[in-house]
Amino acid sequence: MKFNSLIPELVVSDIDKTKEFYVNILNFIVEYERTENKFIFLSLEDNQMMFEQDNGYWNVGELEYLYGRGINFEMKVSDVEGLYKRILDFHIKPFREMKINHYRSGEEDIIQKEFLIQDPDGYLLRFTD
C-alpha cells in the first residue's frame, strides 16, 4: 500500500459507529485496524483517512460534539452522483445538496459537482467529481 503524503487522523467518539458509517454507507475500505487501540485506517479510491476513538492522548483541548468545527475534507471520487444517491438511500440528510460550483484559481475557473455531509461526529465531508 502506498501512503498519501497527507493523511488526516480524526478522533471519534465511537469507533464502531464510525466504521459502520464509512465502510457500510460510504463504501470506504478497511486497509487495516488495531482493535485494541480502537483505530482504523480507511480508504476510498485515492482518499485515505485514519480514525481513533477518543483516548485523550492526542487532544489539545476538550472535545465536544460537533468535532472538527471549521474544517471540511474534500474528497474526489469517480462517481459522485452514485455516492450521493447512496447517502440519500440511507436517509442521510446532506449538509449541502448536490450542485455544481465554480471556484476561481488564478485565471482558471474550476467547475466541480459536489455535495457535503456530516459523519457521526459532525466532521464535514465534501465529495466532488
Automatic annotation (TrEMBL):
InterPro entries named among the record's database cross-references = Bleomycin-R (IPR000335), Glyas_Bleomycin-R_OHBP_Dase (IPR029068), Glyas_Fos-R_dOase_dom (IPR004360), VOC_core (IPR037523)
Family recorded in the similarity comment: Belongs to the bleomycin resistance protein family.
| Record keywords, A-Z | Antibiotic resistance
- Show where the VOC domain sits: 2-129
Q: Which Pfam families match?
A: Glyoxalase
Q: GO biological process annotations for this chain's record? A: response to antibiotic
| Protein name per its UniProtKB record | Bleomycin resistance protein
